[in-house]
Specification:
Low-confidence stretches of chain B: 99-125
Largest sheet of chain B: none
Strand content of chain A: under 5%
Mean pLDDT of chain A: 93
Shape of chain B: flat
Oligomer: heterodimer
Structural class of chain B: mainly alpha
Number of strands of chain B: 0
Order of helices and strands of chain B: HHHH
Helix content of chain B: 55-70%
Structural class of chain A: mainly alpha
Strand order of the largest sheet of chain A: 1-2
Radius of gyration of chain B: 24 Å
Number of helices of chain B: 4
C-alpha cells in the first residue's frame, strides 16, 4: 500500500485539518513535557477508576466532539448558503454530513450524558463509586478509542459517506469500496462496547447500592431516568452490535446479509438499524428529561409536581420506544396496515411526553423562579422542545409522511428535539453540577450571554428549515436553487450564532477557572434538594463519610430540617476503595489497534490484536487486587478540611 | 465486597467449552454439511435452543435460590425484546410487500390483472 492511499490527499481543507492535528498534538506533548506532567497524567487520569474523574473525561471528550461536529455543521451551512462558491464538492459534502450526524449522536450526546450520570448518579444515591469501577474505566477507554478511530477517518483512509444511518446497499462493499465505511462500523462497535458496559454497570449500581431507606420511589428523578435509560441501553444496543457485525462480515469477508446479490436483504439493515436507532433517541432524551426535572425543581424551589406520574411517563416512553421504529421508513413500502400500526404507536408517545411537559409547567406554576443560567436553559427547553414534538406527531402520520420524508422538515424536526432536548440539557446539567465537579461555579453573566446567543441562533437556524422542507428542499443535497437562498442564508446566520454561543461558553469556562471564588458551600447554589449537594465541595475521594436514613426523594431538604450531614462522627468506619489500574487503558488501546487493522482489512494484524485483548482478559482474571482502606483518622481530617471545621 | 472464591469454576469452564463447540457445529452445518436447507434450519434452531439452555443453567444462576436467585424480571424483558425483534422484523419485512406498492394480498398472482386489482384494493383503503 502506497502512502498516498493511506492518507487522504488532494483536499485543501483536509490538509489544513492534518496541520492542525499535528500542531495541537505537538503543543500538548510539549506542554506535558515542559511542565513534567506525564506522570501526573498517567497516575491521576489514565489509570483512574474514580467515577468523578471518569465522568469529567467523558464530558471533556464530548465537548471536543461537539466542537468537531459543530465545525462540520458550519461547513455544511456555508456550502448551502453559497452553493456557487464550491466550498465543498459533493463527495466531501457527503462525508461531512455523515460524520456530523454520527459524531453528534454517538460521540457527543451519549458520552456527555453518560459523563453526567457517571458523576451525579452515585452521588444522588449515596454510593461511593460504581458497582464495577474497573469496568467503568474500560467503558470510558473503549468509547474514547472508538471516537478516536472514527475521527481518524478524515485524514487516514477517507471518511464514511453513506449518512449516519449507513443504509445498505449504498454502504456495502460494491457501492462504497475502501476503508471509509469500515471506520464507521468499527468505531461504533468499539464505543458500543463501552456504552453497553456502562448500561450494565449503572443498572447494578442503582439497583444494589442505594443509601439506607432509599426505596425505588424515593430516588431522585435523574436517577430514575438513568435507571430506565440503562434498561433501554441493555436491550437496544445488542441489536446495533449484531447489525454492525453482520455488515462488517459482509464488507470484509464477502457474505450476503445486506447485499443486492446472493439473496441479501438490504432493507433488513434499515429495519435493524432503527430497531436500535429509535430506542437510541430515547437513550439521549430520557436522561435529559431527568436533568431538566432536577434543575426546574431546584430553581422553582418546589418539590417536582407529580413525581409518580413523571416516573410512570418515563417507563411508558421507554416501553413505547421499542415499538415505533418503522416510522423512520414509512416510505420503504411495507404497506398500509404496517404503517398504520406504527403510526398509532408513534402518536401514543406524545401522551406520556405531554404529561411530562405539563408536570414541569405545574412545578413552575406559582413558584418563585430563580433565573440562573441552568434554569434559563431548562425554561427555553419547554417551548422549543414542544415545537419539535408537535412536528414529530405530524411526521408520525404515515400518509402525510410521504410528503415530509427526507426533506428539511424532517431535518428541522429532529434538530428541534435533539438540541433543546439533549444539548440544552447537557449545558443545563454541566452548569448546574459544575461546582460539584471542579469546586467553583461558572460565571453567571457570561453563561447567560452564551445561552442567549445559542438560543437565538438555534431558532434562527432551524425554524426556516421547516419552510424549506415544506417547499420541497431535500436533505443531504450539496447544492440548492436560488429560490431557496434567503431562508438558507438566514439558517446559516443562525448556525454561526450558535457557534458564537459555544465560543462564549468556552470563554466562560476559562474565565471562571481563573476568577471564580473557591471554597464554596457543599450546596453550592443554595437551592439543592438531593443527596449530591450534601457532600462537601470539593467532593472527597470516597464521596460520603456516613449516610443518613433517606426518607423522601428530596433527601437534602429532610437532612437540613433535622440538621444532619454526611459526616456523623459516631458512625465512621474505615472506607474500602478500589485501586487505580492501567489495565483498562492498555486493553482499550489494544482493541483500537485490532480495530484499526480490521478497517484496512489487515487480517493478520487484527488477529494479533485480538490475541492481545484475550491476554489482557486473562491477566485481569488472575488479578487479585482487593483495593485499599482509608482509615477513620484520615476521613476525619479530610472532612474537617472540606467543611472548614476548626473545632476541638 | 464478597470473600475471594477459591473454588475452581468447573461449571463455567464446561459451559464455555460447550457453547464454543455448539457454535462450531452450527457453522459447520451451515457452511459444509450436505443437508437440505430445511434440515439445516431445523438443526440450527435446535442448536440455538440447547445453547440458550447452557447459558441459563451454567451462567445465569437459574437453579439458585435466595439472594442470588435467577433474574426472572430481566429474563422476562429479554424474551419480550427478542419477540419484538423477531416478530417485528417478520411483520415489517414480509407483510404487504408487493412490487407495485399496492395492497398486501396479491403478490402470488401475476400479470396485469393482479396489477389492476391491487390498485383497486389500494383505493379501497
Amino acid at each position: 500500500m502506497q502512502l498516498d492511499e493511506f492518507f487522504v490527499t488532494g483536499e485543501p481543507l483536509i490538509y489544513a485539518g492534518m496541520v492542525s492535528i499535528v500542531l495541537v498534538s505537538a503543543t500538548v506533548i510539549f506542554l506535558l513535557t515542559y511542565f513534567k506532567r506525564w506522570k501526573w497524567l498517567w497516575n491521576e487520569w489514565l489509570t483512574t477508576v474514580d467515577h468523578k474523574k471518569i465522568g469529567i473525561m467523558y464530558i471533556l471528550s464530548a465537548l471536543a466532539m461537539l466542537f468537531r461536529g459543530g465545525v462540520d455543521a458550519l461547513m455544511m451551512r456555508t456550502q448551502l448558503a453559497f452553493p456557487d462558491m464550491n466550498f465543498l464538492n459533493s463527495q466531501h459534502y457527503n462525508e461531512v454530513f455523515t460524520t456530523h450526524g454520527t459524531i453528534m449522536i454517538i460521540f457527543m450526546a451519549m458520552p456527555f450524558l453518560i459523563g453526567l450520570m457517571n458523576i451525579i448518579v452515585p452521588l444522588q444515591i449515596g454510593a461511593r463509586d460504581f458497582a464495577f469501577p474497573f469496568l467503568n474505566a474500560v467503558s470510558f477507554w473503549s468509547f474514547f478509542f472508538g471516537a478516536l478511530l472514527f475521527n481518524l477517518s478524515f485524514v487516514i483512509g477517507g471518511a464514511p459517506d453513506a449518512g449516519w444511518t449507513n443504509y445498505a446497499p449504498l454502504a456495502g462493499s460494491e457501492l462504497s469500496p475502501g476503508p471509509g465505511i469500515n471506520f464507521y462500523l468499527l468505531g461504533l462497535q468499539l464505543s458500543g462496547i463501552g456504552t453497553l458496559a456502562t448500561g450494565i454497570n449503572l443498572m447494578v449500581t442503582i439497583l444494589r447500592m442505594r443509601a439506607p431507606g432509599m426505596t425505588l420511589m424515593k430516588m431522585p428523578i435523574f436517577t430514575w431516568s438513568t435507571l430506565i435509560t440503562t434498561f433501554i441501553i441493555i436491550f437496544a444496543f445488542p441489536i446495533l452490535t449484531i447489525a454492525l457485525a453482520l455488515m462488517t462480515i459482509d464488507r470484509i469477508f464477502g457474505s450476503h446479509f445486506f447485499t443486492l446479490t446472493g439473496e441479501g436483504l438490504p432493507m433488513m439493515w434499515a429495519n435493524l438499524f432503527w430497531m436500535w436507532g429509535h430506542p437510541e433517541v430515547y437513550i439521549v432524551i430520557l436522561p435529559a428529561f431527568g436533568i431538566f426535572s432536577e434543575v426546574i425543581a431546584s430553581f422553582a424551589q418546589k418539590q417536582i409536581f407529580g413525581y409518580k406520574a413523571m416516573v410512570g411517563a418515563i417507563v411508558i416512553i421507554a416501553g413505547l420506544s421499542f415499538v415505533v421504529w418503522v416510522h423512520h421508513f414509512f416510505t420503504m413500502g411495507a404497506g398500509a396496515f404496517v404503517n398504520s400500526v406504527f403510526s398509532i404507536t408513534t402518536m401514543m408517545i406524545a401522551i406520556p411526553t405531554g404529561v411530562k411537559i405539563f408536570n414541569w409547567l405545574a412545578t413552575l406554576y406559582k413558584s418563585k423562579i430563580i433565573f440562573s443560567a441552568p434554569m434559563l436553559w431548562s425554561l427555553a427547553f419547554i417551548p422549543s422542545f414542544t415545537i419539535g414534538g408537535v412536528t414529530g406527531v405530524m411526521l408520525g402520520m404515515a400518509a402525510a409522511d410521504y410528503q415530509y420524508h427526507n426533506t428539511y422538515f424532517l431535518v428541522s424536526h429532529f434538530h428541534y428535539v435533539l438540541i433543546p432536548g439533549t444539548v440544552f440539557a447537557c449545558f443545563a446539567g454541566l452548569i448546574f453540577w459544575y461546582p460539584k465537579m471542579f469546586g467553583h461555579k461558572l460565571n453567571e453573566r457570561i453563561g447567560k450571554w452564551a445561552f442567549w446567543l445559542f438560543l437565538i441562533g438555534f431558532h434562527l437556524c432551524f425554524f426556516p428549515q421547516y419552510f424549506l422542507g415544506l417547499d420541497g428542499m431535500a436533505r443531504r443535497i450539496f447544492t440548492v436553487g436560488p429560490e431557496w437562498f434567503t431562508l438558507n442564508f438566514v439558517s446559516t446566520m443562525g448556525a454561526f450564532l450558535m457557534g458564537l454561543g459555544f465560543i462564549v461558553f468556552v470563554h466562560c469556562v476559562i474565565y471562571s477557572f481563573r476568577f471564580s471564588p473557591r471554597n464554596i458551600e457543599g450546596d453550592s447554589w443554595g437551592y439543592g434538594r438531593t443527596l449530591e449537594w450534601a457532600t462537601p465541595t470539593p467532593i472527597p475521594k470516597y464521596n460520603f463519610a456516613t449516610l443518613p436514613e433517606i426518607e423522601s426523594h428530596d433527601a437534602l431538604i429532610d437532612m437540613k430540617e433535622k440538621g444532619q450531614t454526611t459526616f456523623d462522627r459516631d458512625k465512621l468506619e474505615p472506607i474500602h476503595m478500589p485501586s487505580y489500574t492501567g489495565q483498562p487503558f492498555i486493553m482499550a488501546a489494544i482493541m483500537f489497534f485490532a480495530s484499526f487493522a480490521l478497517v484496512f482489512e489487515w487480517i493478520t494484524l487484527a488477529v494479533i490484536g485480538l490475541a492481545g485483548i484475550i491476554v489482557m482478559m486473562i491477566i485481569r482474571s488472575f488479578d487479585y487486587d482487593e483495593g485499599y482502606h482509608i482509615e477513620v483518622d484520615e476521613v476525619i481530617e479530610t472532612e474537617k478540611k472540606a467543611r472548614g471545621m476548626t473545632d476541638e | 465486597m464478597e470473600k475471594k472464591q477459591n473454588k475452581y469454576p468447573v461449571n463455567h469452564i464446561i459451559g464455555f467449552a460447550l457453547s464454543i463447540t455448539l457454535t462450531i457445529v452450527a457453522a459447520w452445518t451451515a457452511l459444509s454439511s450436505d443437508l437440505p436447507v430445511m434440515w439445516i434450519i431445523i438443526a440450527i434452531m435446535a442448536l440455538a435452543v440447547i445453547q440458550a439452555g447452557i447459558q441459563l443453567f451454567m451462567f445465569m444462576h437459574i437453579t439458585e435460590r435466595g439472594a442470588t436467585h435467577a433474574p426472572w424480571n430481566m429474563m422476562f424483558h429479554a424474551f419480550v425484546i427478542a419477540a419484538i425483534v423477531v416478530a417485528g422484523s417478520l411483520f415489517t419485512m414480509s407483510f404487504g410487500f408487493t412490487h407495485d406498492h399496492g395492497g398486501g394480498d396479491h403478490h402470488d398472482e401475476s400479470g396485469a390483472e393482479s396489477h389492476e386489482e391491487s390498485h383497486d384494493d389500494h383505493e379501497g383503503h
